[in-house]
Design a protein that fits this description.
The protein is mostly helical and about 260 residues long. Among the domains are: about 90 residues, MazG-like (Helix Hairpins); about 45 residues. Helices cover about 75% and strands about 0% of the residues. Helix 3 runs antiparallel to helix 4, helix 9 runs antiparallel to helix 10 and helix 11 crosses helix 12. About 5% of the residues are buried.
Length: about 260
């Protein structure tokens, strides 16, 4: 028995009505979905930390999520794990005619455009009516930054995009000014949220033009902040002081010191 077959057997046993795990028997697609999302984030975290040992384990956890959903579907008679594998095999072959067929692709950019064209054709074929939006199929469960970048990329493939970074920066400055105006006018939270959302969306656009993943950039900023803030905590602890006992000026000085380290 190979490793995949063993994993499938374990999954089936966990769901067995008689000798299975009580917790696993109670689960359904909706209850497992949050764990699937969590495991995907843990894979991304291991990659960010360049921790290959953790990555190996996290990829196994993510694979188990795929097996779990396939088992649930199999029990309902919808599809099995092998159907999932066959589906992705067929999709990859179809979307890479330059590798498995006779098409010629000259660059990664050209391939990206061809990929989006293939996906649009698939969405049109799956649509119930004759119209299929270019933005259809972008999961609403994606983190907002990632979803914004996907939306913008789709629109850009259709030519709806700024011509250069200078124009993107000008748009960001425009959104900052609009937010400032709302603050001056002491607008309600709905108006402030709306303008802040526009500003964040424009910042994602800048990330896309710089060929930077916005979600990864923010994760990096989070890690940097945590590291520097912990430096402040450790320094104060060494002085037998708490954050509440330190002034903002003292903490800011330690913050600057952390940057030099």
């Amino acid at each position: 028995m190979n490793s995949i077959d063993k994993l499938l057997e374990i999954m089936t046993t966990l769901r067995d009505p008689v000798k299975g795990c009580p917790w696993d028997r109670e689960q359904d697609f909706s209850s497992i979905a949050p764990y699937t999302i969590e495991e995907a984030y843990e894979v991304a975290d291991a990659i960010d930390r360049n921790d290959m040992n953790s990555l190996r384990g996290e990829l196994g956890d993510l694979l188990f999520q795929v097996v779990y959903h396939a088992q649930l579907a199999s029990e309902k008679g919808d599809f099995q794990f092998k159907d999932v594998v066959e589906s992705i095999n067929a999709k990859l072959l179809k979307r890479h005619p330059h590798v498995f067929g006779n098409e010629k692709i000259e660059s990664a950019k050209t391939q990206s455009q061809a990929w989006e064209k293939h996906k649009l054709q698939e969405r049109k074929a799956a649509a119930q009516d004759s119209f299929a939006s270019l933005l259809a199929g972008i999961s609403t469960n994606l983190p907002a930054l990632s979803r914004a970048q996907k939306i913008q990329s789709r629109a850009a493939h259709a030519g709806f995009d700024w011509n250069n970074i200078r124009d993107v920066m000008a748009k960001i400055e425009e959104e900052i000014l609009e937010l400032k105006n709302e603050l001056v006018e002491q607008s309600n939270q709905d108006r402030l949220q709306d303008e802040l959302g526009d500003l964040l969306f424009s910042c994602v656009n800048l990330a896309r033009h710089l060929e930077i993943d916005a979600e990864s950039a923010l994760r990096g900023a989070n890690r940097k902040f945590e590291k520097r803030f912990r430096f402040i905590e450790e320094k104060l602890q060494a002085q037998q002081r708490t954050l509440e006992e330190a002034t903002l000026e003292e903490m800011d000085k330690l913050w600057e010191e952390s940057k030099t380290r």
